[in-house]
Write a structure and sequence with these properties.
Strand content: under 5%
Radius of gyration: 17 Å
Number of helices: 4
Helix content: 55-70%
Largest sheet: none
Length: 78
């Protein structure tokens, strides 16, 4: 999974979850899809060095390209 290469959480659903949490008196929530919630909770327990490396891999130039597309580019196949 690469940053900006997958379907995003529905903004209206995230806003709805946030509003409902606010009305319920909650201080903080993890809004969005199950994957977003898992990523948020995992990042709380990972050492900063591991989290930074994962972030680097997700955001480096060309990281959204599929491995097949990268291979095609390297081999000159179109």
């Amino acid at each position: 999974m690469r940053l900006n290469s997958n379907q995003k959480d529905d903004p209206s659903e995230v806003a709805k979850q946030g509003f409902e949490a606010l009305m319920a008196g909650k201080d903080a929530i993890s809004a969005g899809s199950v994957m977003t919630k898992i990523q948020g909770n995992v990042s709380k327990v990972l050492p900063d060095t591991i989290a930074a490396e994962q972030h680097r891999q997700l955001t480096e130039p060309g990281s959204a390209e599929s491995p097949l597309r990268k291979l095609e580019g390297i081999c000159g196949i179109s």
